[in-house]
Design brief:
330 residues, alpha/beta, Helicase, Ruva Protein, domain 3, six-stranded mixed β-sheet, 15 helices, elongated, binds adenosine-5'-triphosphate, binds magnesium ion
């Protein structure tokens, strides 16, 4: 049986109608029972605590998008909630990264089985790699595959100029993702990570990072937390160690460029082979996002010129235009 102290607190929370405390103490009891290897009882209690709510969320995800909490001062939503549309077939990654994503999905799809053995699905993963290599896309894919909404934490809304308000905002985000089953993405995690050691920076951001890390440590909910960064070198060991999974999103290899081209050129009639060395070499050192932009540009020209087939020359022209665009940007 659960220890007397927790039981007393649980009954007190129930009697005073404090639902957050009630949930917290219930979870402590479940955890306690699980530690004692009473898995059936723990599962049963969990079903009672979450059962109705889980059904509500996962039963018909497509019509159930909860309203996100707002920043008190400015009224901005703290999370951007989306219905994911792209599946695992829409992402091309190195084998190891793909395997890691598939494992993560499997653990969440079959978390009941893990739980009955007293184990938990990994629920914190960080994606790292250069811009445009599919980190945000992967978060969408994971949400799609798990049939959950994707919530992207808006760091701009989170960090308030009002003292103490940032911590309150974070609390709201974590409460929200505890109550609603989602895939949550802390995008551009480095924006909050990089200030940690920066002595000169104003203290608020440092406090945010520490608060995020503490809340992540304490987080017991079932939402899956993802973070993405393209500056992995500035995230220190204290941050890396918080994550169960670390997944790399590198620039595509020669082979992956071929796959990306076949994905992005699906349904387009063309006058070249996708494994043509000349075609592949056009895109060396390009990211998935670069390839997509170039291909799209070339297809538009082809359509507007009433051309029946796409040619290598079209790709080259589009690439030239893309390169112009990026050099003027710099
Ligand atoms: N590995 C990939 N497989 C398939 N499509 C990709 C891949 N990488 C990028 N893309 C395409 O490029 C778009 C932009 O990529 P995405 O936003 O996921 O990159 P990112 O890694 O999050 O970049 P950033 O670090 O700048 O946020 C995607 O929506 C997708 O259409
Ligand atoms: Mg991104």
């Amino acid at each position: 049986m659960a220890n007397g102290k927790i039981l007393r607190q649980l009954i007190k929370a129930g009697a005073t109608g404090d639902s957050k405390a009630f949930r917290r103490f219930s979870e402590a009891i479940i955890e306690d029972e699980r530690q004692k290897q009473h898995h059936l009882l723990a599962n049963d209690l969990e079903q009672i605590l979450y059962g109705e709510h889980l059904q509500q969320v996962s039963g018909n995800v497509h019509s159930f998008i909860p309203n996100p909490p707002l920043d008190k001062e400015r009224g901005l939503p703290l999370l951007d909630i989306r219905q994911p549309k792209r599946s695992l077939e829409e992402i091309i990654l190195p084998e190891l990264s793909m395997l890691a994503l598939e494992e993560l999905l499997e653990e969440h799809r079959r978390s009941d089985i893990l739980r009955s053995y007293g184990m938990k699905a990994s629920n914190k993963a960080i994606f790292y790699g250069p811009p445009g290599c599919g980190k945000t896309l992967a978060a969408e894919v994971v949400a799609f595959e798990l049939d959950r909404p994707l919530a992207i934490v808006r760091l701009d809304a989170l960090v308030s100029s009002f003292l103490g308000e940032t911590a309150a905002n974070l609390r709201k985000v974590f409460d929200f993702i505890t109550e609603n089953l989602m895939v949550v993405l802390f995008d551009e995690f480095d924006a909050i990570g990089k200030e940690r050691d920066d002595q000169g920076e104003h203290g608020e951001l440092r406090r945010v990072v520490n608060a995020v890390l503490q809340m992540m440590d304490a987080y017991q909910g079932r939402s899956l937390i993802l973070a993405a960064t393209n500056h992995e070198q500035i995230l220190d060991a204290a941050i890396w160690r918080r994550f169960d999974e670390i997944i790399e999103f590198p620039l595509p290899s020669v082979e992956q460029i071929g796959y990306l081209l076949s994905l992005k050129l699906r349904g387009i009639r063309r006058q070249f082979d996708l494994d043509d060395k000349e075609v592949i070499s056009l895109f060396s050192n390009n990211s998935g996002a670069d390839i997509e932009r170039t291909v799209r540009r070339s297809i538009k020209r082809m359509i507007l010129r009433d051309q029946e087939f796409l040619t290598i020359k079209d790709l080259k022209n589009a690439l030239l235009r893309e390169n112009q665009r990026t050099t003027t940007q710099r």
